[in-house]
Amino acid sequence: MRFINPKTDFAFKKIFGSSQSQTVLISFLNGLLYDGQPTIESLDILNPYQAPRVRGMKDTYLDVKAQLADGTSVIIEMQVLNIEGFEKRILYNAAKAYSTQLGSGEDYRLLNPVIALTITDFVMFEETEPYRSSFILKEKNFLFDYPAHDLELVFVELPKFERSIEAVNGLAEQWLFFLKHAKQLEEIPENFEAVPALRQAFDFASQANLTPDELEDLEQREMFIHDQRNAVGLALKQGLARGIEQGIEQGDRQAQRRIAQELLLVLDDAAISQTTGLSLTEVQALRQENLGI
Predict the structure, then answer these.
(1) Phi and psi for 108 in degrees, rounded to 5?
(2) What is the pLDDT of residues 123-166, one digit of tens each?
(3) Which of 185, 210, 235 is the last residue of a domain?
(4) How far apart are CA 200 and CA 206, in angstroms?
(5) How does pLDDT run across 204-223, given as a tens digit for each residue?
(6) Could you tell me if 199 and 279 lie in one domain?
(7) Residues 188 and 275 in one domain
(8) Which of 7, 102, 109, 239 has the fewest CB atoms within 10 Å, counting from its CB?
(9) Does residue 155 come out as left (phi exceeding 0), alpha (psi in the -120 to 50 range) or beta?
(10) Residue 25 CB-half CA count within 13 A
C-alpha cells in the first residue's frame, strides 16, 4: 500500500476538504485545537474539493474552510514553502474572513469567531521549542485579553514535531505523524487503527483510490515544490544576498536583472521588485520574457 504526501496542498485538501471529509476534519481539528477533546461535533466544509483543481497550479492556495455548529469559521492551510509575506497573508485572510461576515447595515453582534489554523513544513518561530503556538489579541503592557475573543491564529510547525511512531501519544500527535510520515509508510500503523477518522484519512491518501488526473496533478505539484526549493538553495549557494547588495549599490542593471531571473520561481513580483530595485513593470516583463506567464 502506498500513500500520497499529505503535506502538499493538493493532497491536504483532498484528504481534509472533500465533501466526504467531515469526520476526518472534525477529528483533526479536535486534535490540534482542543487537545483531543470531542469539542467539535459537526461542521460544514464551505468549499469542498472537486478533482481536478490544481492543473497549472501557479499561485494557487488550496486552503480548507469550515464552519462549526456554533458559527465559528475555521481556515486550515498547509504551507510547504516559506515565501515572503506569508505571515501577513495569514493575518489578512483571517481578518477578511471575519470582516466579510456582515452585509451592509447588519449588527456587529452577529460576527462569529474566526480561527486560522496553519500547518507549516518549515520553522516559523525560532525563539520557541513547542511545535504548536496560538496568537490572540491581548493588551500590550498588562497582557489581559481583548473583550471579544474572536480572532485566533494557530500555527503548527512540522519540523519541530520529532516523535517516533512508538512515542506518539494522543490524537494531535497521531495526526501530525500522519501528515509528516504517511508517504513513507506501507501500511496503517497498528496503534492508529482504533481511530476511524485516521483510517479514513489513510484511505483518502491511498494512491490506489486516486484517478489518473489526480495522480498527475499531485506529481506536478510535488515537482513544482521541489523546483522552488532547489531554486532557493541555488540562490543561496551563488551568494545572491551579496550580489543583490552589490548590484543595487552599484546601480548595475544587468546584475539586477540576473538576480531577478533567479528569483522568479521563488518570490512574487512585488517581492522581487522590492529586493532588486527593478520596477514592478520591469519584473512583470521579465517574468513574461522568461516564463511566458
Answers:
(1) -60, -20
(2) 999 889 999 999 999 999 999 999 988 999 999 999 999 999 99
(3) 210
(4) 10
(5) 988 777 777 777 676 666 66
(6) no
(7) no
(8) 109
(9) beta
(10) 28
Is the backbone peptide bond immediately before 212 cis, with ω within 30 degrees of 0?
no
Is residue 156 assigned to a domain? Answer: yes
In whole angstroms, what is the distance from residue 80 CA to residue 10 CA?
A: 11
Alpha-carbon distance of 53 to 228, in angstroms, equals: 20
Number of domains in the chain: 2
Query: Which residue bears the cell 497521531?
Result: 174
Residue the block writes with cell 512585488 = 270
The length of the chain is 293
Do residue 57 and residue 145 come from a single domain? yes
One DSSP character per residue, 56-115 reads: T-TT----EEEEETTS-EEEEEEE-S--TTHHHHHHHHHHHHHHTT--TT--GGG---EE
**Does one domain contain both 206 and 220?**
no
Using a pLDDT cut of 70, give the percent of the chain over it.
80
Interaxial angle between packed helices 196-205 and 22-33, expressed in degrees from 0 to 180 and rounded to the nearest 10: 120
Give dist(CA 178, CA 12) in Å, integer: 11
Please report, as a single letter, which amino acid is at residue 86.
F
Place of cell 513547542: 130
CA–chain centroid gap for 127, Å, is: 21
Count of alpha carbons within 13 angstroms of residue 85, beta-carbon side? 12
* Residue with grid cell 481536478, as numbered in its chain: 52
CA–CA gap between residue 267 and residue 81 (Å, rounded)? 11
Is there a single domain that holds both residue 183 and residue 250?
A: no
Query: What is the pTM for the complete model shown?
Result: 0.73
Strand locations in the chain (E) = 43-45, 64-68, 73-79, 114-120, 132-135, 151-157
Phi-psi region of 170 (alpha: psi -120 to 50; beta: other; left: phi over 0): left
Task: Give 266's strand partners.
Answer: none
Cα atoms found within 13 Å of the Cα of residue 154, Cβ hemisphere only: 16
Domain that holds residue 137: 9-210
Q: DSSP secondary-structure letter at 166?
A: T
